[in-house]
């Protein structure tokens, strides 16, 4: 992170406050290193001049309130006051990109004052702490050449030295062996030369078959070379994917050349040994020192060759030293940086890694928590939610959406078209990506769904879309009913009005004989009464639809049914229909007017759709927690295909019969809504030509 030190902001900085068990993040630090001059005296207290006094440094650091609270908790746990704590050391490391790293160590730091500084939001609340630095400041400068570039530069220089050394050692070895022809002749004379199943055994001077152990060790040595830092560095320097092939070719060519030269140097070394310049190396361990033997031989042939030998040995030592230096770096445990046993110079880097690791862990925990919250919220949604990327691949789908598309969570990562192959959703998604919004409706499993899609943008680019599914079955049903109701009301109102207008026009124009006037007036009166009845029924349904609260009272059903039947005796007698009421007195909480109208409509329909000389039986009783009222007739009955729709508004089984009887088609709808208002149910049992029985069930308690 960036750090402000003594008023200047640096690209990288870290402050390590040496308090065991605490890792504090310091936002800003400043300190003045003052060494007061003290007057010195000689004999007789005569002034001799000024000498250096003690360091008296002061400073200030700023940290977040959370870290400050950690310091207070530490003091409380140790039983010491805040101003009584002494920090043995505060190490400040800071640098800019490409510049040297500066490390200041403040010795024996004591807090002397504290103040709070608040910005917008609690997370910006910081605490300023004034410091007294008793032991002064130790300044250490590190010259850093830039991390990866430094390693690359070191490997480049090392490779140049090694290349020069290999060329020189090969040329010198060939010369000492007696020429290239001699080297080749000696190689051909070796038992097992260029044999894929045998190799030369220096100890016995004969050809020996490769053992399993020798094959494994040779492969391990050869393949292990590919893991050398200068090989891996080529791949670490890749900036783009297209450079991978080039890096592979460079690494392969280097390894092949290196392996060939290594074998060739071994052959040269054998020839030099055959010439008596160096002793024969019998064991494999001794054989690995042949290049050192040749370098030592070179040093014996003059200053120039001694310098070249020194370069060769330097190359060898540089390789070994670099491996020793890089070994601790390659074995760093980045999961626990502070637990590594590495160089002291790496401490600021390791502390920075530890701090970043904790920040990453905190961010991961926050992301996990947010992801879990998102899943919990979406899982409880009744609406379906689907997130897709700009390619249409599913990123998330909640259980409600899975139920709609008949899939499960395994669909995440698959294209949306794999779970919904219909073109409607595909077109809606395309519209959303192009215009910002798309929608469609589909019917699935007898339910109607609305699909709304909205694109998601980030930094001006389309990154995906969100799909919401809504179950609009009830809404669609209500819309259809509203349209049908509007059409039916218009039709039902228009029919009697046209009759009234027609009869009135005939009367107005004097086109009716005096003897027919009463008939036309009666027709007008009948149609007007029909209009009044229709309007009253519509108003009643509207009242019930609004769901307002009506005053309730105890209603005794047996007496209510008896009174209702008496009001219909005249109509029943005209058709010689017998009406009876039986049962027991049962009282329910309800609206008397609605319950009376319910029984009236059922009994009125039982008379209208009955046979001449038939009967209507009304019964009142109890069944568990419910009061039961049945209205049974011996009429024409209802065909099975119509029984599921008789409670719909303006629905008529026999329109001609309904019109002749003066029905509006709203009676049973009023019955259904009135019973529902009382939290009851209404059912029917009907056989065509035999009669119909309606059963009301009303709760005895509210």
Offer a few descriptive terms.
elongated; 5-stranded antiparallel β-sheet; 4 domains; 25% strand; 702 residues; 19 helices; single chain; Pnp Oxidase, Chain A; Beta-Lactamase; alpha+beta; 9-stranded mixed β-sheet; 25 strands
Rg from Cα: 51 Å
Given the C-alpha coordinates, what overall shape results?
elongated
Count, helices? 19
Strand content: 25-35%
E-strand count: 25
End-to-end CA span: 69 Å
Secondary-structure class: alpha+beta
Low-pLDDT runs of 5+ residues are 34-41, 48-55, 141-147, 656-662
Sheet with the most strands, sense and barrel status: 9 strands, mixed
Q: How many structural units, i.e. domains?
A: 4
> What percent of residues adopt helix (DSSP H or I)?
40-55%
Summed over residues and divided by their number, the pLDDT gives a mean of 76
Structural features, described:
With 702 residues, this protein is α+β, with helices and mostly antiparallel strands. The protein has 4 domains: 3-142, Pnp Oxidase, Chain A (Roll); 148-330, no CATH class; 381-471, PAS domain (Beta-Lactamase, 2-Layer Sandwich), CATH 3.30.450; 552-702, 2-Layer Sandwich (Heat Shock Protein 90), CATH 3.30.565.10. Helix content is 45%, strand content 25%. The protein has 19 helices and 25 strands. Strands 1, 2, 3, 4, 7, 8, 9, 10 and 11 form a 9-stranded mixed beta sheet that branches. A 5-stranded antiparallel beta sheet has the order 15-14-18-17-16. A hairpin with a 5-residue loop joins strand 8 and strand 9. Helix 2 packs parallel to helix 6 (244-274). The longest helix has 36 residues, at 473-508. The radius of gyration is 51 Å and the shape is elongated. The relative contact order is 0.04. The model is unreliable at 34-41, 48-55, 141-147 and 656-662 (pLDDT under 50).
